[in-house]
Amino acid sequence: MRLDKFLKVSRLIKRRTLAKEVSDAGRVTINGRVAKPSSEVKVGDILEIGFGAKMLRAEILELKETVKAEEAKNLYRIVE
């Protein structure tokens, strides 16, 4: 699955266009490498997303094309 689509489906970022902009700015890494919006993500990957001064680390647990809002948090877990 594409990175920008996963960020939207998982609701880590609300809109796919915003996910693309954040990725294009170099603020998203997959397993320590800067990622493009079209980068493929898979189960077990560690995402790091920079939100200003805050850094969010999440491990991908599951990939789905669509999920309900209450199920979106089951697609990843926050890693400290």
UniProtKB/TrEMBL annotation:
Presence of keyword Chaperone: no
GO BP of this protein: rescue of stalled ribosome
InterPro entries: RqcP, S4_RNA-bd, S4_RNA-bd_sf
Record field: transmembrane: none
An annotated Gene Ontology molecular function: rRNA binding
Ranges for domain RNA-binding S4: 1-64
Superkingdom classification of source: Bacteria
Chain coiled-coil ranges: none
The entry's keywords: Protein biosynthesis, RNA-binding, rRNA-binding, tRNA-binding
General function of this protein: Key component of the ribosome quality control system (RQC), a ribosome-associated complex that mediates the extraction of incompletely synthesized nascent chains from stalled ribosomes and their subsequent degradation. RqcH recruits Ala-charged tRNA, and with RqcP directs the elongation of stalled nascent chains on 50S ribosomal subunits, leading to non-templated C-terminal alanine extensions (Ala tail). The Ala tail promotes nascent chain degradation. RqcP is associated with the translocation-like movement of the peptidyl-tRNA from the A-site into the P-site.
Similarity remark: Belongs to the RqcP family.
Quaternary structure annotation from Swiss-Prot or TrEMBL: Associates with stalled 50S ribosomal subunits. Binds to RqcH, 23S rRNA and the P-site tRNA. Does not require RqcH for association with 50S subunits.
Name of this protein: RQC P-site tRNA stabilizing factor
The species this protein was found in: Thermanaerosceptrum fracticalcis
Taxonomic lineage of the native organism: Bacteria, Bacillati, Bacillota, Clostridia, Eubacteriales
